[in-house]
């Protein structure tokens, strides 16, 4: 048997590809992101995984392997900060090896506090896309600090590549053929659109720019233990108004 830290090579990549293919066999487009997250947890020494699309700095979660993984992803969306945000901005993997101490805590202090409070102590964010464009991230969560081995990191890269291909192959809302396809895609679009509609409303209420309005929305969400989408929905449905201090 090969040592844990030995690079997987072609055989390892084939095994990962086979596991991915088996994991998504027979499922509809709406289930693919979550299924791929489940496969990532099976292949790698992590306790959770999630995948998000990123647009204008706001990640839209497509799927997660568990409620814990989904929650940590939402923390990053609400804060506008964290490894997944950094990976999306840089287009390169961001490895937060230890959220309990050291450099990673200094880089993302609030996120580190929130993540460790729910048992996540390391995050590995892999960009999805190509050399010129990052469309999202695959985020891997572990309950102990530490590095991924070379073998695990290469497997994570394979997973990110497969995830990118799968996401690019998903039908757009207007192209969806099966009834279930359109429901999940349009639901994501509604969440995303509500955030930007709410941002526009906050801009008008406070007389501020886009960045400030989105920051206010995120700050309110964090202060009240809500997600950015929750707050956006309240603003759009006129249950919440931002007034000038």
TrEMBL record:
GO terms for molecular function: RNA binding. InterPro entries: ANTAR (IPR005561), GAF (IPR003018), GAF-like_dom_sf (IPR029016), GAF_ANTAR (IPR012074), WH-like_DNA-bd_sf (IPR036388). Keywords: Transcription, Transcription regulation. The keyword Transcription applies. The keyword Transcription regulation applies. It holds the Pfam family ANTAR. It comes from the Bacteria. Residues 181-236 form the ANTAR domain. Gene3D superfamilies: 3.30.450.40, Winged helix-like DNA-binding domain superfamily/Winged helix DNA-binding domain. This is Diguanylate cyclase.
């Amino acid at each position: 048997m090969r040592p844990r830290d030995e690079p997987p090579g072609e055989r390892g990549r084939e095994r990962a590809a086979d596991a991915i293919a088996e994991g998504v066999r027979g499922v509809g487009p709406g289930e693919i992101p979550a299924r791929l997250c489940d496969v990532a947890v099976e292949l790698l020494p992590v306790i959770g995984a999630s995948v998000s699309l990123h647009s204008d700095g706001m990640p839209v979660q497509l799927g997660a392997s568990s409620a814990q993984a989904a929650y940590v992803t939402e923390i990053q969306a609400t804060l506008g900060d964290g490894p997944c945000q950094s990976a999306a901005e840089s287009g390169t993997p961001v490895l937060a090896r230890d959220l309990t101490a050291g450099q990673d805590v200094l880089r993302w202090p609030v996120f580190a506090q929130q993540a460790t409070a729910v048992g996540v102590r390391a995050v590995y964010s892999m960009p999805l896309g190509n050399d010129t464009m990052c469309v999202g991230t695959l985020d891997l969560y572990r309950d102990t600090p530490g590095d991924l081995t070379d073998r695990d990191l290469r497997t994570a890269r394979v997973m990110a590549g497969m995830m990118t291909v799968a996401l690019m192959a998903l039908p757009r809302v207007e192209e969806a053929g099966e009834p279930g396809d359109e429901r999940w895609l349009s639901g994501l679009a509604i969440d995303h659109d509500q955030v930007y509609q709410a941002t526009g409303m906050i801009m008008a209420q406070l007389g501020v720019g886009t960045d400030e309005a989105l920051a206010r929305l995120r700050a309110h969400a964090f202060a009240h233990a809500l997600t950015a989408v929750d707050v956006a929905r309240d603003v759009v449905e006129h249950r919440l108004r931002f007034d000038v201090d």
